[in-house]
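Tokens for chain A. Residues wanted.
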């Protein structure tokens, strides 16, 4: 691989007055009264906006069996987004590797790389992205935890398929992920040997340490594991060993942030998203409720406590308030990149939030996207 090109694809450039590169994490949320088609149309609108305003990358998360989250097939969504954008990096935030055979992921992301050369990131996680029963159905086993335990071995196998470099004598030495590097070495081959850079994702210390030892970029899920952010980033940096991919650590954090024209409106939208999380955490997943439904909902004392704790880590308010919150978080964590996820009932609200954040930092470009 071209080490310089690989590094450039990982490290973004801060735009406007932002302290670090800004990116987008999309859960493809579906609000009450809306369809998955509506949610995917919103994703295209946000991706176009992000590209036009100088956001560095746009990632899609993998979740299953959640009515309010339409991102069960990241590779399919990324192909759709690639067809509607030209420059912005696209990737998985992430693919849950234990849910899939490594060869399948290598083939999917080799196909994406062929569709959008040098624009694809492969972010990998070891959690199921769902509940235990659904994980068992995905993995066709009654012991789904075994997949997470084997994550380092699965990662090594996937990397071998991506690089097409199994050693002679290996059972998979004659198996090739196509599209992939093998096409460049075949007679008459003109295929680029480049493949998507691999990121490790985590919400605890396991992947932080593994990413450091392997010299890979690391993405931490601050948006739902804020208490572990600084310890995990410290562990990543302490464990880091230079590699052909990176000569120094590079860590981004996922941040839940929502900006609105008025602070009161931001609070209404964030309350609705929090009610969706209450229902998910209590085994009642559903569509993202409207702000009106959330305002009329009678929260129990335990639910109110959860809401307070959850929303304490959601940066929300006016554009200036969100900018100040993002700046403070970046200073406290030393994150090299901020990946913003804005969860709300309506696609228009989410699109407006990214517009406001872009304006607050003076990011370049015109606001032309439609939800």
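Reply:
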């Amino acid at each position: 691989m071209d080490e310089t090109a690989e590094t450039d694809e990982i490290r973004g450039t801060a735009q406007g007055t932002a302290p670090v590169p800004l990116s987008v994490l999309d859960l493809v949320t579906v609000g009450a009264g809306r369809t998955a088609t509506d949610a995917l149309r919103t994703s295209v609108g946000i991706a176009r906006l992000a590209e036009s305003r100088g956001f560095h990358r746009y990632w899609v998360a993998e979740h299953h069996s959640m009515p309010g989250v339409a991102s069960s097939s990241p590779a399919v969504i990324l192909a759709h987004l690639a067809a509607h954008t030209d420059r912005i990096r696209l990737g998985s935030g992430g693919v849950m590797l234990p849910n899939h055979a490594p060869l399948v992921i290598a083939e999917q992301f080799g196909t994406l790389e062929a569709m959008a050369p040098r624009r694809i990131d492969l972010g990998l996680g070891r959690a199921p992205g769902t509940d235990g029963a659904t994980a068992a159905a995905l993995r066709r086993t009654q012991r789904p935890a075994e997949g997470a335990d084997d994550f380092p071995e699965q990662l090594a196998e996937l990397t071998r398929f991506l690089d097409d470099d199994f050693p002679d004598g290996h059972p998979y030495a004659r198996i090739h992920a196509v599209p992939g590097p093998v096409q460049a070495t075949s007679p008459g081959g003109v295929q680029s040997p480049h493949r998507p850079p691999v990121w490790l994702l985590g919400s605890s210390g396991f992947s932080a340490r593994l990413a450091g030892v392997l010299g890979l970029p690391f993405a931490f899920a601050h948006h739902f594991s804020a208490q572990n952010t600084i310890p995990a980033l410290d562990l990543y940096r302490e464990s880091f060993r230079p590699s052909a991919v990176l000569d120094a650590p590079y860590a981004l954090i996922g941040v839940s942030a929502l900006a609105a024209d008025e602070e009161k409106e931001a609070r209404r939208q964030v309350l609705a998203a929090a009610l969706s999380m209450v229902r998910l955490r209590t085994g009642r997943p559903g569509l993202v409720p409207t702000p009106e439904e959330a305002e009329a909902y009678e929260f129990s004392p335990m639910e109110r406590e959860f809401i307070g704790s959850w929303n304490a880590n959601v940066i929300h308010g006016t554009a200036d308030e969100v900018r100040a919150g993002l700046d403070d978080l970046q200073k406290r964590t030393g994150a090299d990149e901020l990946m913003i996820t804005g969860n709300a009932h309506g696609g228009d609200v989410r699109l407006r939030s990214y517009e406001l954040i872009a304006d607050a930092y003076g990011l370049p470009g015109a606001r032309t996207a439609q939800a």
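The mean pLDDT is 92. The radius of gyration is 20 Å.
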